[in-house]
From TrEMBL:
It comes from the Bacteria. Residues 22-58 form the YjiS-like domain. This is DUF1127 domain-containing protein. Pfam families: YjiS-like.
Length: 64
């Protein structure tokens, strides 16, 4: 009978795999979308109160 190692310890410093990269991209996309939607719901006056214009929304949503 042969033994198969089914317990694998993944080093903490390993590079992120493709699944983690995809998940991070989806989370980023969802955050940008939610931020963009929330800012677009504000009136021009409310945007002015926080120092933004409609043209700033995309930049702010992407965190640039």
């Amino acid at each position: 009978m042969s033994a198969i190692d089914t317990i694998r310890v993944i080093p903490a410093n390993r590079p992120a795999g493709i699944i983690e990269n995809i998940a991070a991209t989806v989370r980023y996309w969802a955050d940008v979308r939610a931020t963009r939607n929330e800012l677009n719901r504000l009136t021009d006056r409310e945007l002015r109160d926080i120092g933004l214009t409609r043209g700033d929304i995309e930049r702010v949503a992407r965190g640039l």
